[in-house]
Design brief:
The complex is a heterotrimer of chains A (313), B (283) and C (260). Chain A is an all-alpha fold. Chain A contains 13 helices and no strands. The radius of gyration of chain A is 24 Å and the shape is flat. Chain B is mostly helical. Classes of the chains: A mainly alpha (313), B mainly alpha (283), C alpha/beta (260). At the A-B interface, helix 1, helix 6, helix 7, helix 10 and helix 11 of A face helix 4, helix 5, helix 8 and helix 10 of B.
């Protein structure tokens, strides 16, 4: 087990290098760099001055050299300064991260609370009315664009019925309701389907028939055997959902003015604040990779077949 | 001995064919509608009627009017062309690119396979929209840039499928026979591999249309996709966001259009997936 | 000997498609009845019907399965579960997969016992290890603490038998119990089932496509083809002097080993 953990951690390194490299390359490919942003390319400033400033910032070095020195800075926690505000990118990012993490955590919580029971309910009542109803709901949820849901909720809950503030006021509970609901609806629709499919698959396994043949009641089979087996898969699937969640927060935070890194990123993109965009991309990717790693390790720790070192059939 | 008991069984009818026809027709209708959108608008989408601005939905204007008095239904219909076709183009690009790369990797193997797969892993390390946002932002706005951005992060999925399918095909008897009989590489690939791997790939494509449509509209909503004067549902929604308080239908109508389109494509996609599943066919 | 299980004109269908047609037979106390046939002949379906294992797609569309005066297909779920394990037991083809892979064998056996009887873990453990001992497992405790995948195929099968007879049912339904095993393990399983009948007087229905096993164990045999019974009678009679054409074809396909 320990060897597996070590192996996965080592595998992490090329992935992280790849992430940083891609992000760095992307910025450079844009053809812009700090200087062009500052001085524009209109010729208002003399070319020599531009070149001198470039050399000062090390922007005239070959690509790979720039990457390496940038990477060095990265490892020291230096991600440059914002083009717009002049503030340290790393600090700015870290200060907004908790808000996004809060939103993400709340959304995951709401999703789990909704999807798992409903998914199990649907699977157990396979092909009956309640199953169809839930599948229709899940389907609709999957087809609603998240920004549409956001605006819809805004219109109904805040504007028409005046239950909640239209835009976020800090990170209090009332401000969190609509963004969380929006994210949770999309995530739940997808996740509920997966939970249902997983449980259904388990229910069709021979051991369920075996337990029935030994006289065990359905409820006991469900709770003690089926859900235990299904839990492993269900947890893993959650990790995959987190990925789309991290990407989705950008739009939602932006709509509701929730002061997290998603909103930061969207604003940065509008203002072409490249260091900030870069930080966003890198950090979200790292978080995503970490979440996947943790989930994978959790799975390995929980499944007795893997834990005891026997290969799975 | 008494008469044996009879029990009636509820037979689950196989609706596959019906569903395929109905949803296929709906999707085709959507496509045709968007091609001929110009002729289908009840009013001129650009005609302003300043006496009738921000009117709520009514019998005359099914989706109301916007701040300039333009009929929303007509504007939504016109927006369909950009929204639907750019999505289909995007999905086509992703499918073709991914499949070609995957096929190439699966066929040749060796270092080129390793390199390309590592590259695709790098792209896969990014959560959902994150990279697309950044790329679209960096490239500037415009629908074509949004398409490029989304294509850049979505091809790995198809490459993976194509690659594993190709590898599976390589192990089959008929492929080995073809190789032995001296068929040229091109012929083998085109005649033997491609037709056999195209199935799962196409099913994945169909299922992705809905998702891609939403992501493309999402980028446009953030200002990173279509820009005026291009009529597109996502950008229409963000342009009119301020009207949410006073005339919500203006902002929400294009959203409804996206929802309906995505639903139709998702329904079709699901049905195609069921159709391709050997367990569901024929019974 | 008294009759304990009877199938009367049983039809079984899966989602409208017929799998078994008009099958009637009876099983007497302590008797071993073989049901022979190729895959797809409906023999597994036939016995699964008795324990309500046809769901979700299958249904006994016509006919009755009578056990001690009860009509099994019409029994409410609760009552059927009370019979399962206690009065009628089943041995599966792949006994390992009839157990939940992420729980120990002991936990699952204890679970099934406590559904029918109140007993403490200690009582269960002694009962179970004694039973396993009788079935040739000297270290029953270790078996109980194992996960299914930790046991070999043959051991899994024999544990499957133990699970089925834990509560001393009067009828045992064996669905291809030897098909997944090598020859030596097969022999062990056959001997064990014969021992069960001898020790406990359990009646057994043995479903298999292996004629050799039928010959070794069954008192009477039914031959099935495409959901129907084509021949029935005493084992020796049917195997050596088959009357139906199909039975003849089936027999001729079995290689006969000759002594040198």
């Amino acid at each position: 087990m320990r060897r597996y953990v070590a192996k996965r951690l080592i595998q992490l390194i090329p992935v992280l290098l790849g992430i940083t490299f891609l992000s760095f390359a992307m910025m450079r490919i844009a053809g812009s760099d700090a200087i062009t942003e500052l001085y524009g390319d209109k010729g208002a400033v003399a070319q020599e001055i531009i070149d001198a400033r470039r050399a000062e910032l090390g922007l005239d070095q070959p690509f790979l050299k720039q990457y390496v020195s940038w990477l060095g800075g990265l490892l020291r926690g230096d991600m440059g300064t914002s083009y717009v505000s002049g503030k340290d990118v790393f600090q700015t990012f870290i200060s907004k991260l908790p808000a996004t993490l809060l939103l993400t955590a709340l959304s995951i919580l709401v999703t789990v609370v909704i999807s798992i029971p409903l998914g199990v309910l649907a699977a157990v009542n396979h092909d009956r009315l309640i199953d169809y109803a839930l599948r229709v709901l899940s389907f609709i949820g999957n087809s609603l664009p998240n920004f549409f849901v956001a605006l819809l909720l805004m219109q109904l809950l805040a504007i028409r019925w005046k239950l909640l503030p239209v835009l976020s006021n800090g990170t209090g509970i009332r401000s969190a309701v609509m963004p969380t609901l929006t994210l949770a609806i999309a995530m739940s629709a997808k996740y509920m389907r997966q939970v249902r499919a997983t449980v259904l698959e388990e229910l069709n396994r021979e051991y369920v028939a075996g337990a029935k043949a030994r006289g065990v009641r359905d409820r006991v089979i469900l709770w003690k055997s089926v859900l235990k087996s299904a839990m492993l898969t269900i947890i893993t699937l959650l990790a995959l959902s987190v990925g789309s969640l991290l990407g989705g927060t950008a739009i939602i935070e932006s709509i509701f003015m929730w002061d997290g890194v998603g909103k930061l990123a969207v604003d940065a993109i509008t203002l072409r604040d490249y260091p900030l965009i870069q930080a966003y991309v890198i950090w979200m990717a790292i978080i995503y990779v970490m979440v996947n790693l943790v989930t994978d390790l959790l799975y390995h720790a929980l499944d007795p077949r893997i834990r005891l070192g026997v290969s799975r059939e | 001995m008494s008469e044996p008991t009879v029990r009636i069984q509820k037979v689950r009818r196989n609706t596959l064919k019906i569903r395929l026809i109905v949803f296929g027709a709906l999707a085709a209708g959507l496509l045709i509608g968007s091609i001929f959108s110009d002729y289908l608008t009840p009013y001129d989408p650009y005609l302003q009627d300043l006496m009738n601005t921000k009117a709520a939905p009514s019998a005359e204007h099914l989706l109301g009017t916007d701040r300039y008095g333009r009929d929303m239904l007509s504007r939504v219909i016109v927006g369909s062309r950009a929204s639907i076709f750019s999505t289909l183009l995007l999905v086509a690009i992703i499918t073709v690119t991914g499949t070609v790369i995957g096929l190439f990797c699966g066929w040749h193997g060796k270092w080129i396979d390793t390199v390309l797969m590592r590259i695709s892993d790098m792209f896969l390390a990014f959560p959902g929209l994150v990279f697309a946002l950044a790329v679209a932002g960096v490239l500037g706005g415009g629908l074509h840039n949004a398409i490029i951005a989304l294509a850049a992060i979505s091809w790995p999925k198809y490459a993976r499928i194509a690659r594993s399918q190709t590898l599976a095909q390589k192990e089959t008897l008929w492929l080995k026979a073809a190789k032995l009989s001296g068929s040229s590489t091109g012929k083998i690939v085109l005649k033997h591999i491609l037709p056999n791997i195209i199935g799962p790939i196409l099913v994945t494509s169909m299922l992705d249309i809905g998702t891609m449509m939403m992501e493309l509209a999402g980028l446009s909503f953030l200002g990173l996709g279509a820009k005026p004067p291009t009529a597109e549902w996502g950008s229409m929604m963000s342009d009119t966001r301020s009207l949410l308080t006073t005339a919500p239908w203006v902002t929400l109508a294009p959203g409804l259009a996206i929802f309906v389109s995505v639903m139709i494509f998702n329904l079709l996609g699901d049905t195609v997936r069921d159709w391709a599943d050997p367990k569901m066919r024929g019974r | 000997m008294a009759e304990i299980l009877r199938y009367e004109h049983v039809d079984i269908a899966y989602n409208g498609i017929s799998a078994v047609q008009d099958v009637s037979f009876s099983l007497r106390e302590g008797e071993i009845l073989g049901i022979a046939g190729e895959s797809g002949s409906g023999k597994s379906t036939l016995i699964r019907a008795a324990m309500g294992l046809l769901v979700p797609n299958g249904l006994v569309t016509r006919g009755d399965i009578r056990y001690k005066g009860k009509n099994l297909p019409d029994l409410p779920e609760k009552e059927l579960r009370r019979l399962n394990g206690r009065e009628i037991g089943m041995i599966f083809q792949s006994a390992g997969s009839s157990f939940c892979p992420i729980r120990t064998v002991g936990a699952q056996l204890y679970e099934s016992m406590t559904e029918h009887e109140k007993l403490s873990r200690e009582e269960f453990r002694s009962h179970a290890t004694a039973l396993l001992g009788k079935l040739g497992f000297p270290d029953g405790r270790r078996i109980l603490e194992s996960y299914p995948f930790e046991l070999s195929g043959g051991m899994q099968q024999r544990v499957g038998i133990a699970a089925a007879i834990l509560l001393n049912p009067s009828v045992l339904l064996a669905d291809e119990p030897t098909s997944a095993l090598d020859v030596s393990a097969q022999k062990q399983v056959v001997e064990e089932m014969l021992l069960v009948r001898k020790t406990f007087g359990t009646a057994i229905i043995l479903v298999t496509h292996n004629i050799g096993v039928i010959r070794a164990m069954a008192d009477r045999v039914l031959v099935m083809k495409d959901g129907r019974v084509v021949e029935s009678g005493e084992t020796r009679q049917v195997l050596e002097h088959p009357r139906a054409d199909y039975t003849r074809t089936l027999m001729s396909a079995v290689p006969r080993l000759r002594r040198a």
